[in-house]
Amino acid sequence: MTDWTGYLQHFTEEGFSEEGITILLGENPDSDSVLFVQETLENAKKLISMLDSVPKSLSEAAEGMKKRLLQHPSELEDIRARYNVMIVATTPWIASAEKMRDQWSMEGRSIELAAWLRRLGSIDHNPPKETREVIQAIENIAPRDEVRKAIENLEAKQRERRVILQDMKNILKRKGWKLEFSEHANLSQKFEEVSEWLELEDRIEALERDILRFEERRPNEAKMGLEIIENARLNGNSSPIKQLELDVKDEIRDILESNEEIKHRLDYWSQNGLIITDSEILTDNQLWEFEENLEELEKHWNLVKEKSIILRNLLDKAGRKHPDWIGRVDSYEKILTLIDELTDQQKQISENIQVETEEWKNYGLNLELIGGLSEGNNIWELDQKIDGLRSLAEIAISILNSIDYLDQSIDSERINEIQESVIQDWHLHNTLQFEMEEIDKISRRQERHLMMLYQRAEYLGMDVTDSNDWTIGEFEEKIFEEELIRNLEIKKQTIRNTELRKTIIQTNEMTTLRQEIESSESIRENKWVERKAADGRLFYYNEETKESTWSKPNFDNKIIISNNEEMDNEENIDQSEEIIENYVVSEDFIDIPKVNKIQDVSSDEILDLEINEDENTEIDTKREEIYDDKISNLPLRKILGVGNRDPVILESSRPRDLRIQRILRLMPMIESKLNRKEQEEIVGKLLPLLVNIEKWIRVRSEHRRCWDDNGGIIQNIDRLQEVLDDVPGPGIQLPIGFDKMPLPSKTEDLIAEIKEFSTNALVATSSGIIEL
């Protein structure tokens, strides 16, 4: 078998690859195969020579084709086709010149054609219109001027193209590009490269915009991307940009996914009552902050959520409005501050309630309706509940304190009932009002009772120095004991008075007889006067007895008393005078005047002394009637219409004008501490006020047709009050009720109060007919 490989060895020495030649020979080479290979390699050598002669602008592409052809000579036709396309695309006139070369030579213009081709060798750009004109001029073997004009148009178009190319280069330089065209690149290739760079710049700008969108979210990645862009502008390499585009898309996708996750988490926290941002549209800064610190932020948000729940609970319990900033994650400090404030307030209220209820408990008040202080209770509701009961508790405590001032030596059973009722039902206003009135009645009754005891003690002449330490029961016992002692003294006094009466009567009979005799003589002698009658006659007229007589009476006949009888009478008179002078009668029982002479004792006084012991009760009754008549005629009682009634009982019988009530309470002190003259002075001071009150009542009573001239101020004001009680009106003009102010303790204070009271208590009498 012939070794054809060795025969074709010289082709390998010319640069063709042995592998390529082997492929051309095939598996079973023969002489035909060798001839085919030899012919193919010769044609390849011609194409290589043509590639070596291409313009510099095509040398790089031609070099690539040449290398490919030496390695793979079997691809000769493909490489030739590419060469023709390249030639046609870049220097299409060369093909036309080759085709028309012989005709140019026949006309003797081959040298001219070569010159035109050399001139066209500087053309790097093939605009369609101008290129077509040059090709047509060559193919038509046009005159020299026409060929020149066509080539000049093509050169002018290339110069314009170069200006445009320079502008494009300037644009890229301003954007930071460092331009380096391919070696031997023609104008068209440079345009292509610049176009590619401009296209790449557009892609880079889009990348920059995308990168700047997440520069704050992904600062490191953005920095790396910008560095790749900077390098691409320096070397014009598009491969890193392609990869960067993919990376940026991935980064943006990751950011969008992260945004969705962040929004999902924000929605979750919003549903839990938190306010993360003021706007639903999040900025890149906010998204970057959430992405970088989401775990720590969610820990903080969880604290805000817990504290917000606590705060809302406290605010609901306190009955306060929720502030707008509650639940905002940036208001955490405010939330903590308000929680501390409400907690301190809750603690303070709890302590106050504890102190207050402890005080109520100490007074024995029933606290079952309040309930205890426990964690489950709303302290503010409990405080409101206690606040509603506070005034009632104060009234109840005041009532219990006032009970301590009552004398429990009497009315103890009723007082204990009141105390138990107040302790159990202190939260009921009606109960407190009723028990308060009951205590007031008991207090007034005890006050009146005590005043009567003092009056009785004064009447009995008791020593009441230590009476402040006595209970009413003890006071009554002491009065009872004093009454027993007084009854014994009265009995003894009665016996002494009886003996004294007998002595005085015997002595006084004798004295009276002597006085009658002396008086009779004196009358007879001194009371007769001489007068003339109408006829001129004289007669005698007695001015004492109104008797008349014509003759003057005779006074010589006198009653003769024996000397012995007269001496005995004088001795008896002397003895009686001595007995009376040495005897003192107690003023507490019967008022018997002390006399120095027996003649000073009148017959009326003697009759008084003759009252026997059996008539004592009747005398006391008459004295009380006389006392009542005197009492009812006292000036103040007469004006007010009190009569002989107890003013204290009258004051407590119903609510009235407080001025009237005050006067009624002061009356017992006025009557007990002031004499009749001083009482009249007091009435004089109170008269303007009483007239003012009466006028005020009269105006309104006449309007209501209920005035009556009969009766005092008390009767008229009570009658007016009963009428007005049934008339609906806008209100009460003057304060009415019961007087509860303390009474003055001294006479000076009493007089001073009445003076001030009479001056300051005057009111207008015609300010409208309004209910009292």
Secondary structure topology:
Layout: H1 4-7, H2 9-13, H3 18-25, H4 31-52, H5 56-71, H6 76-90, H7 92-106, H8 110-120, H9 128-139, H10 144-174, H11 187-213, H12 219-235, H13 239-271, H14 284-318, H15 332-362, H16 379-404, H17 412-424, H18 429-460, H19 472-526, E1 528-532, E2 538-542, E3 548-549, H20 563-582, H21 603-609, H22 616-632, H23 635-640, H24 647-652, E4 656-657, H25 658-673, H26 676-704, H27 713-725, E5 736-737, H28 747-760
Helix pairs in contact: 4-5, 5-6, 6-7, 7-8, 7-9, 9-10, 10-11, 11-12, 11-13, 12-13, 13-14, 14-15, 15-16, 16-17, 16-18, 17-18, 18-19, 19-20, 26-27, 26-28
The portion of residues forming beta strands comes to under 5%
Structurally, how many domains make up the residues?
5
Q: Give a short account of the largest sheet.
A: 3 strands, antiparallel
Q: What's the arrangement of strands in the largest beta sheet?
A: 1-2-3
Radius of gyration: 74 Å
C-alpha termini separation: 157 Å
Please state the overall shape, judged from the principal axes of the Cα atoms: rod-shaped
Instruction: Flag low-confidence runs.
Output: 556-569, 579-624, 766-772
Structural class: mainly alpha
